[in-house]
Structures are given as C-alpha cells and as structure tokens.
From TrEMBL:
GO biological process: establishment of mitotic spindle orientation; regulation of establishment of bipolar cell polarity
Signal sequence bounds: none
Record-linked Pfam families: fn3
Region (Disordered): 1-26
Record-linked InterPro entries: ANKFN1, Ankyrin_rpt-contain_sf, FN3_dom, FN3_sf, Ig-like_fold
Gene: Ankfn1_1
Record-linked SMART domains: FN3
CDD domains in UniProt: FN3 (cd00063)
Domain Fibronectin type-III, first and last residues per copy: 202-299
Protein name: ANKF1 protein
GO cellular component: spindle
Amino acid sequence: KMTQQMRDLQLAQARKPPGPSSPNAAKRLYRNLSGKFRVNYTSFDEGSLAGRSEKEKLRKSYLFQSNAALFEAVELQDLDRVQELLKQYSPEELDLNTPNSEGLLPLDIAIMTNNAPIAKALLQAGAKESPHFVSLESRSLHLSTLVREAEQRVNELTAQVVNEAPNADCSEKEKQLKAWEWRYRLYKRMKAGFEHARVPDPPTNVHLSVGSSSSVQVTFWEPLSVNSAVVTKYKVEWSCSPTFSPPLGEAVIDKLKNLHFTIRGLVSGTAYYVQVSAYNMKGWGPPQTSVPPFAIPSNWREYDGRAPRRRGQAEALDHLLSQVKTVHQHCVCHEPCKNQAQSRKHSVSKSLKHLFHPGSKFLKTLKRGLYLTAVFYKDDNILVTHEDQIPVVEIDDTYSCLLMQDFLWFTKVSCMWDEILWLRQCVTVSQSSCSCILQTRFKMLLATSQMQGLLGIQDLGQVFFEPIKDKQGNILIVTLKEVKTNQTFESVRWVPICKLQTSRKSVSSPEEPTALDTLLITVQDKLAYHRRSSHALSPGLYLGYLKLCSAVDQIRVLVPERLPNILCHVKIRSNPNISREEWEWLQKMVSMDEPVPTEPEAEMSQNHLFQELQVAIKELMTLVNIPLQEAKDFRLYSQEVLDFGGQVSFLLLLPPSDDVCTAPGQNNPYTPRSGFLTLPLQIFELGEKR
C-alpha cells in the first residue's frame, strides 16, 4: 500500500540529522518523499546501464529536480515559477506528462484546484490529464483514497508526536506531520473542486467560413462561464444535416494555443453544418452551432471558371530562357572564351599578381563617374576592404548622368547574378550597332563580373531602389545582401558598422558630402530597408490601396516603410479565401455602381464580408490620411482577387479614375502621414516577386 511505502521511507528519513522546520521545508520534505516514489519507475533502467558517465547521471538528477520543482510550484499555485520552468525546460525534460507516485500529473492538480492561469500555461506547453482517470467514478475514487490515506497518516503522526518524549526523532516527526497536514488539505481541496465542478458551457463566437473549394474553417472562443472547471479540449463535429444525424466526422483539439480548425476533403458545392463542444474533468458540455449555421466549399474563381493568372508562367519563362540560351550557344559572334577564363581567374586567384593588378582592385576614391558598390552585412557587421572601405568598382568614368532606364535594367540583372557571363556575351554580339545604351549596359556587366571576381561571390544581393548622387558628378549604384552564416571572403573582412562610421575620415564638407560619405552616413537606413523588404505577410485576406504618381521617366507607387515590398494595406481577416457567394455579392455591388461600403446597412447585416470590409476601409482611410467621406468616390477592383501563394490574397481599393496616378506638377490633395515612401514601379515589382 502507498501508506506502508511512505512509512518505510519516513523511518529512513528519521535517521537523518534534523533540518530546518519552516513550513516551506515541510512542503519540500513531502516533495522529496514523492520524488523517491517517482525514482522507482526508472531505477531498474538506470541500474542496468553499467558504465554511464557521471555527467549523464548529474544531468538526469538535475532534470529530476526540475520535475519535482514543477510539481511543487503547481501545488503552491506559484504561476511565475511554473512559467519560468516551462520556459527553461522542454516538456520532455520536465517529464510533463509522466504521472507521479500518486498517479497525478501537474495538469491534474491545476484543474482540480481550479487554478485556471496555471492550467492554461500547462496546456499551452502540451500538458495532458492523467490516463488513470478513465471515468468520473475512477477520478472520484482515486481522490477519496488520497484524502483517506493522508488523513490516516496525519492521525498516526499526531499520536506519535503527542506520546513521545521530545528528542531528535520527535522533531523529525513534527516536520513530517506538518508536511502531511499540508498534503491532507491539498487533497481535500482537490476533491472539493472536483465535486463542485460541472460540465463546461458551450464555446462562444463559433464562426464558420469557407477555406477553399474543398475545405471550411471554424474558429471559436472559450466558454464565458467562470464557474465550471478548466476546459482541456474541444470537439468539432460536421454533417450535411442540420440535426447532425448522421454525423460525417469529428476532430478533438487538445492543442489550445489557437482555437481554430480546418475541415478538409469536402465536396465543392455541398452545404456542411458544424458545431463545437468543450470538455473538462466532468465531461463534454453541450455543443454550440456555428454562425453562419453552414458553409459551402467554393472559391471566387468558380464564379466564371477563371484559371489562375500565373499558372504555368514560371515554367514558360524558364523554357523561353533556355531556348534563347540555345540559340546564342551556336552564335559565332560570341565573345572569345578568354573572357570566361578571365572571370574564373578573378574568382579563384589568390596570387600577388591578382591582388595588385590595376584592373582588379577596389577603388579608394571616386572621380566623377558611374560606380557599383556591394554592401554585405551580418548582424551589426559589414564587409570592408583591407583599407576599411566598402567595396567599390568603376562602371564608367565618362558617364555623368545615369538614365533611369539603364538603372531599372540593371535591377532586372540582379535576378540573374549567375548568368552575368552569358549576358555579357549576348550584349557583346549586339555592340555592332554602336549604341551608347548597349555600351553602358555592357560596362555594367563588366563591373559586376569584376565585383564578383574580387569578392569570390556570385550573388551580390538586391539593388537599392535609388542610386546615390553627389554634386561632384559621382553616381553610386548600391547592392545589399545579408549573410546568414559565418563566412570568410577573399580581399575583404568583417568590421562593426559603428566602428566604420566613426573611424572613417571624410574628405568632403557636411554641406556637400561625396557619394561614399552619403552611403556611410545612411547605411543603417539602407540595411533597415533591405531587412523590411524581405518580410512576409501573415496568412489572410488584405485590403490594399493602389496609389501611383508619375514623373518624366518613371512611375512610382506608394508603399509603407515598414513593409516596402507590399502596397499600403490593412488586414481584413485571417482566412485568405473568398468564396463564390462572396465574390458574387461583390460583383453585384460593383455592377449596381454602389459606393464603397463605409456605413452599416440593415439588409447587409448578415453579410459577414460586408461588415469586415467596412472596418477595413475605415482603417485604411485613416492610415493613408484620406477623409472618410471621400470613400464614396473610391472603387473596389472587381476583376480578380490578387493571390500570393495561396496563403495571402488582396482586394484592391482604387481612388477615383483621375486620381489613381498623379501626373507631374499635379497636387495631391491627400498627403499620407509619415511612414510611407514611393518606389519605382519596376523596383516594387521585383521586390514583390522576391
């Protein structure tokens, strides 16, 4: 019996010298007693593994102590300590779901003492209820046994303390008595918590939406009632009948970090009803049907049978590029193969001749021309030459005015860093026309090859969206790349950015800085732009605002600084799919020339998308500093939903036709607040594709 085991252990403990007699010491004493029971489960395995290292033994002992500490923290209702242990150790290291000698788990103690914060913390960490409690009767019997045996042990120790003369053994028994009295009160509280608990109320805000042509999504919240026990799992049921007879399927959700579930493998065009119920230690509560009561799997493309716009595009472009390469491979006008050998030599040569060759060095100063610089960074460090300068090579020393079309062409080259040699050969073939544009672009490719060879790196990263210009006639094209791993490079080394900025001696005045000084002053801003431009949106449906402005040689698009690869936007909902019914409603609203919905209407109250759009449009108008009353002149783009990888989709909000693109010299009546910038349209397109 448990009582006899504990009595034997207490006799062994009685032989030890007396320790502290504080209440916490009494509680730790019982934890030590319980700990000895838990050791018995693994003692056979540990004893059978001869030759185990002392380090491994110490580690297991340390983890065992953390398991005991977790039980103690739960029993003492110490939420901070529980959270600290869950953060410090993994569930496996804590033996989170291994019952102790009383057949209890930490989650059992938390829910039967109705400590909801600790129970929720344990559930989010993956805690389970004890498998010993297969029924309400077994749980009740187990608790009654624990209470009875604890009460019996308290009575036995009380009699021993009263009858024995004061000595060391008596002092030890008094500490044991305090521990058992505390344990007795804990078991009684757990038993009372179980007896007074009731099954949970239904979950709240059960919302059903269409996930795709073959799935629906259900989201829900916890029950509102605070009188029932902690909910430990939920059950989602679905059927084609509103009475759920017969049921088609069910799923139990015991990972409670996110209360949602996607029902997959459904038939498009069929109505499915869904209900959700909650479970606690008293059993399953009544189900709650969803709102709306059913959903029909579908997608907006089913409205007119439209195929995805990008289907097969990537494959077609790859095929076209391979055909172009094949044609050029048989062209006799190719640049001689020595260029290829020279490029390889630049990338692998480590000889002194390579390092000091006049055509194969980084530049220290700029002399009125067009230049290329590559900024490689890792955390707060940046790659510099041995002269502590950012790597720079010359493109053209006679080029004092960079045409925007040349710059935008070079940004497209950044998508093909590995094909620079082939592109050089192609441009060389066409130089017979003596085109200045082709000559400039050929020099850009030569400078790129030189930079790649000097660094020993093919991928130079992303081109910054605008070149740096100074009053001395220098133009600097900047590429940015983040290095994820620790790498060493030829001819360059890592230095902290702050050290580079403070140690560099400027040769220009603050009023007229050179392009290199400007780069160094603004490098942190450029790195921040590069990091933000690689961020991705979380899955969901978004409302984007399309606003363009034109100049003489380019069109620019308004984007947020915090995410410059995406249009100005707000999130409508977490579900990216628009169902056929929702798209049909949007088409009807557009065909009737209805204004953008900003105010609630009684007849639209049942249309959930309508309500979501109202909230999103108000938020977006505030974001871009446009008065809400002007929204009546705005339009929703109704030709398609912009789909990005199946997880992110966009509806577009367009200004009035005359204001979609602001012409040069035209005043924009609504200026966005700070936190926005305008990018060249081609740069934005490249960033979106990345």
